[in-house]
Specification:
The chain is an alpha+beta fold. The chain contains 2 helices and 12 strands, in the order H-E-E-E-E-E-E-E-E-E-E-E-E-H. The N and C termini lie far apart (about 55 Å). This is Proteinase inhibitor I3 Kunitz legume.
């Protein structure tokens, strides 16, 4: 018996491509430093303004190794640990601008034995700050998981910023806060809610770099 091989109509691929372009234009796709649309892959978060630290990584607080906060490397030549984006509601494959999504520090293993999804922690009364910390994987859209949703918004021509909009289950229009940098008593540059945003750009990480990252 002779098998017949079905070939896809070229028009089908054209429709798919046009759909992707239209969706990207309608919602706005986040792009990396090479101008490529970002997808479910790993990316370094790097500062736009040079000379003020490097990429993002994990560190404890107050001299303690655990649990982790999201912090900036002190050296601008250190790209830190890449992150992955997920769980946006739009039915698009690319990472969308200005849409709630989850962010995970993409590290293989940690000494703290904890998940590394970003979330806004409890108010630090000593430092009078809300810090961005590492926490469990968000499950659904319950009150606790809502602390783990951030937006990536365009800021100027070539920069982005992270925004936290603490929508509660019964709130209408939440008050949004930018994610900035707070320098603590030990000189550690920590991500925290701020009136001054931390302007960033994204660089795609290769598979070898991601698999080699541990804490």
């Amino acid at each position: 018996m002779t098998k017949t091989t079905k070939t896809m109509n070229p028009k089908f691929y054209l429709v798919l491509a046009l759909t992707a372009v239209l969706a990207s234009n309608a919602y706005g796709a986040v792009v990396d430093i090479d101008g490529n649309t970002m997808f479910h892959e790993s990316y370094y978060v790097l500062p736009v303004i040079r000379g003020r630290g490097g990429g993002l990584t994990l560190a404890g607080r107050g001299g303690q190794p655990c649990p982790y906060d999201i912090v900036q490397e002190s050296s601008e030549v250190d790209e830190g640990i890449p992150v992955k984006f997920s769980n946006w509601r739009l039915k698009v494959a690319f990472v969308p601008e200005s849409q709630n999504l989850n962010i995970e520090t993409d590290v293989g293993a940690t000494i703290c034995i904890q998940s590394t999804y970003w979330r806004v922690g409890e108010f630090d009364h000593e430092r009078k700050q809300y810090f961005v910390v590492a926490g469990p994987k968000p499950e659904g859209f319950g009150q606790d998981s809502l602390k783990s949703f951030f937006k990536i918004e365009k800021s100027g021509e070539d920069a982005y910023k992270f925004v936290f909009c603490p929508r509660t289950c019964d709130s209408g229009n939440p008050k949004c806060s930018d994610i900035g940098i707070f320098i603590d008593e030990l000189g550690v540059r920590r991500l925290a809610l701020s009136d001054k945003p931390f302007l960033v750009m994204f660089k795609k990480a290769n598979v070898t770099e991601v698999s080699s990252k541990t804490m």
